[in-house]
Specification:
about 35% strand, 4 helices, four-stranded antiparallel beta sheet, alpha+beta, Immunoglobulin-like, single chain, 14 strands, globular
């Protein structure tokens, strides 16, 4: 499946010219970047490796007090659709060492607070079957509403039963980690996100591989363009600045080609 991406942004910068961007499609297993272009007039760019070696982050030294940006890409997604119920768990003692961090609590995913809940609510399920049940529970229990902010955690979302894709992904990661299933937060593009925007979902480690999952129901793994991964949203914000920045305009268009 070929996916077209077109992002336009304009921000007023608050005095520091350095901006850290996480918006380029990753060169990662399951997808091939056919072509791409990032245009920030007048800016000097430097790229660094993303979290866990997935994707790239871009430092932009922007002249003046405005950043105008356009990013375009065509990405071939060759990742197959996954049937979660066919995937078994991996015992913790067999996990590679670099996956152990994906089992631990993080700032927005307090998995240590959910052990009792997952033991009771998903009793008797393991591996892909448990992940499928977690996705169903989050999808059915939460209402997709823009009620959260940058401080909202998985525990807050669990209590409010409302949120946006960021909150759904945090809660899925927390519940999976509480179930001893490695999980990480994913920044991505997907064609059916409504309203169109950058999208957040999760990856879980089952049967020796990472698998993309989305409790919002808006994205499928075989049509999702992965950008970056991390413990939670802290690691993969699409834009970070050293001084306050004000949104002027922003549009994200993702289409099937």
């Amino acid at each position: 499946m070929a996916i077209g991406i077109d992002v336009e942004m304009e921000y007023a910068l608050g005095g520091d010219p350095m901006v850290l961007l996480t918006l380029e499609a990753a060169r990662a297993e399951g997808q091939t970047v056919r072509d791409e272009a990032l245009d920030i007039p007048g800016a000097t760019l430097a790229r660094v490796e993303g979290q866990d070696g997935v994707g790239r982050r871009v430092w932009a030294n922007v002249p003046g007090d405005r950043m105008r940006l356009r990013y375009r890409a065509t990405v071939e997604v060759i990742r197959p659709a996954t049937r979660l119920d066919t995937l078994g768990p991996t015992p913790m003692y067999e996990l590679p060492g670099d996956l152990l961090g994906a089992l631990r609590p993080s700032r927005y995913c307090q998995s240590d607070m959910f052990h009792g809940f997952v033991a009771q609510r998903f009793d008797g399920l393991e591996g892909g079957a448990r992940v499928a049940a977690i996705l169903d529970w989050v999808h059915e229990e939460l209402s997709y509403l823009p009620v959260s902010d940058a401080t909202t955690t998985a525990l807050d979302t669990f209590a409010m039963r409302e949120g946006v894709c960021r909150d759904y992904a945090h809660l899925v990661c927390a519940l999976a980690r509480a179930s001893c299933i490695p999980a990480r937060y994913v920044a991505a593009y997907a064609p059916d996100v409504d309203p169109p925007d950058f999208h957040a979902l999760a990856e879980v480690w089952l049967d020796g591989a990472w698998h993309i999952v989305d409790a919002t129901g808006m994205a499928r793994g075989d049509e999702t363009v992965l950008v970056a991964v991390g413990r939670d949203a802290t690691d993969v914000a699409f834009m970070e600045t050293l001084a306050p920045a004000e949104l002027v305009s922003q549009s994200v268009t993702v289409t099937r080609l």
